[in-house]
């Protein structure tokens, strides 16, 4: 199991509020992989722009 970067209780709450569905425990790992991948892309964009700060626009 990899590092978890999302707050499980908040994700479960959001899914429940939006759909009344339950959430599998494996969802947190899957979302964490997505977060990790997107952060890596944002880091590369910031570096390509010559910045030392990742900004919101790096996630577009």
Radius of gyration: 15 Å
For this entry, what is the oligomeric state of its chains?
Answer: single chain
Annotation, overall tally of beta strands: 0
Mean pLDDT: 95
N-to-C SSE series? HH
Whole-Å distance between the termini?
A: 28 Å
Q: Helical content, roughly?
A: 55-70%
Structural class: mainly alpha
| Beta-strand fraction estimate | under 5%
How many helices? The count is 2
Task: Assign an overall shape.
Answer: elongated
| Biggest beta sheet attributes | none
Unreliable stretches: none
Give me the secondary-structure topology.
Blueprint: H1 8-19, H2 26-48
Task: Give a description of the structure.
With 60 residues, this protein is mostly helical. Helices cover 58% and strands 0% of the residues. It has two helices and no strands. It has helices spanning 8-19, 26-48. It starts with 7 loop residues before the first helix and ends in a 12-residue tail after the last helix. The model has no long low-confidence stretch (mean pLDDT 95).
């Amino acid at each position: 199991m990899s590092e978890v970067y999302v707050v499980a209780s908040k994700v479960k709450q959001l899914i429940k509020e939006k759909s009344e569905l339950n959430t599998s425990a494996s969802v947190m790992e899957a979302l964490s992989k997505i977060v990790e991948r997107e952060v890596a892309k944002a880091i590369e964009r910031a570096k390509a722009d010559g910045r030392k700060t990742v900004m919101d626009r790096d996630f577009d």
